[in-house]
Design a protein that fits this description.
Layout: H1 7-14, H2 18-29, H3 39-51, E1 55-60, H4 63-67, E2 83-90, E3 101-107, E4 127-129, E5 132-134, H5 138-158, E6 165-171, H6 179-186, E7 193-196, E8 204-208, E9 210-219, H7 234-254, E10 270-277, E11 287-296, H8 302-318, H9 321-325, E12 329-337, E13 340-341, H10 347-360, E14 366-369, H11 375-381, E15 386-388, E16 403-405, H12 406-424
Parallel strand pairs: 3-6, 3-7, 7-15, 8-14
Antiparallel strand pairs: 1-2, 2-6, 4-5, 5-16, 8-13, 9-11, 9-12, 10-11
Helix pairs in contact: 1-5, 1-12, 2-5, 5-12, 7-8, 10-12
């Protein structure tokens, strides 16, 4: 669908190389880059960008230094380095900001593969199956990273002159909070618009909820099982709090009226994902520690959602005589994802939709999502309008036999290249 393109646009779109995209995607998926271990993949990407002639900064942002930032979004994995790769194509310089600058960004870290027996091939042994490349991270989000690389290759191969600057940011640590993107922003990776190629099935995400993790310690009193009435089961007291969380979840979601969030059904879920407690089968449990996720409503920060969560726990504890005297301990831990939004009619999603329509022959939906993403860091801390747009479905993310359709990766690369040309190219 390139009939309506002017010559320079057509030249760039036709320069996208599907065979090279498949090769790049295979190479990326074959590099295990579990959160906290991203050095090897970042070195590979930095070399590729340099080979294309981009000016590249490949640097360790420093774990300790980033953690002192007031906007630090937390983390959940041990790490010793925070490797960031930023490439520049076009005129201008990193810190001048005197010309138009757009950003294509993607995270390189992936979640652990889990039980290897649930995979039909090795998680880091990419295979093609029915037009889809299968492997850990193929969808979330090495397909999107490959699309960025494919777009850059096409821009370079076509020889198009950019009247402005394209920044390509490859970042670590998105899966556990987003400190890689925060570090890139602090290093000057901001601009007039940013596209993050998370898996959206080539829909344009203009609003996303957030999420925060929490740890809740619930006290009880131990007793022999034969005299259990002399004890207080921490499990029973946990259920008091769980029922309160369930009621809160219903209330928070029922009160949402935003037209992008209400179609999601449950935009702000609450779950408990880990439970630890008890050390003897015939002893009343005297302590439980649970960890969970609490949704951050659109328009909220994670800190504001944390205050809501604390109020729910405190109110529930006040209704129970034991918990009133022995209050549970709530800790806000791990990654904190604020919510974010750009207007659906903002020039960024509007221009991206036009580029996508030219390639796909249809206009992509503009939607909201219930998960957190690095978009909020660009919007809230980089003063940079941002959207999510990339190949693959979030339903594939983090799953065994995770996969991404190769044709979507190719289409995404074409759309990104066309969008950059329309934003920056001289005519």
């Amino acid at each position: 669908m390139v009939d309506g393109l002017v010559q320079v646009e057509r030249r760039v779109v036709e320069a996208v190389d599907p065979a090279r995209i498949e090769a790049d995607l295979r190479a990326l998926v074959a590099i295990p880059s579990i959160t906290g271990d991203e050095e090897r993949i970042q070195a590979w990407l930095a070399d590729e960008l340099r080979g294309l002639g981009l000016v590249v900064r490949h640097f360790d942002a420093g774990v300790a230094a980033t953690a002192t930032d007031p906007a630090w979004p937390g983390s959940e994995m041990e790490r010793s380095t925070l490797p960031v790769v930023v490439g520049r194509l076009g005129s201008g310089a990193f810190h001048e900001g005197s010309e138009r600058r757009v950003i294509l960004s993607g995270h390189v870290d992936v979640v652990p593969p889990g039980d290897a027996t649930t995979w039909t091939a090795g998680p880091f042994e990419p295979v093609m199956r029915d037009g889809r490349l299968v492997g850990r991270g193929a969808c979330d989000m090495k397909g999107g990273v490959t699309a960025i690389l494919g777009a850059v290759r096409a821009l370079v191969a076509s020889g198009v002159a950019l009247d402005g600057e394209l920044l390509v940011a490859f970042v670590p640590s998105e899966e556990d909070g987003g400190q890689g993107t925060l570090a890139a922003i602090r290093a000057g990776c901001t601009g007039d618009a940013a596209i993050i190629t998370e898996p959206t099935a080539l829909r344009i995400v203009v609003a996303h909820a957030g999420a925060m993790t929490f740890r809740l310690t619930v006290p009880g009193r131990a007793a022999h099982a034969s005299k259990r009435l002399e004890g207080v089961s921490a499990l029973d007291k946990l259920m008091v709090l769980v029922r309160a969380l369930e009621e809160d979840e219903v209330t928070r979601n029922a009160s949402e009226t935003h037209p992008l969030m209400t179609p999601l059904g449950l935009p702000y879920p609450t779950i408990i994902g880990k439970v630890r407690g008890g050390d003897w089968a015939s002893t009343v449990i005297d302590r439980l520690v649970v960890e969970g996720r609490y949704g951050v409503r659109l328009g909220q920060t994670a800190a504001e959602a944390g205050e809501e969560l604390r109020a729910v726990i405190d109110a529930a504890a006040a209704t129970d005589p034991w918990l009133l005297e022995h209050p549970p301990v709530l800790e806000l831990t791990g990654g904190c994802f604020d919510s974010a939004e750009v207007p659906a009619d903002h020039p960024l999603p509007a221009g991206l939709a036009e580029a996508a329509s030219a390639i796909l022959g249809r206009e992509p939906e503009r939607v909201g999502e219930p998960y957190g993403a690095d978009m909020r860091l660009f919007v809230r801390h980089g003063d940079t309008p941002a959207v999510l747009f990339g190949p693959g479905s979030v339903l594939e993310a983090h799953a065994a036999d995770e996969s991404v359709p190769l044709d979507e990766v190719v289409d995404c690369a074409r759309i990104l290249a066309l969008w950059v040309v329309r934003e920056l190219a001289t005519r």
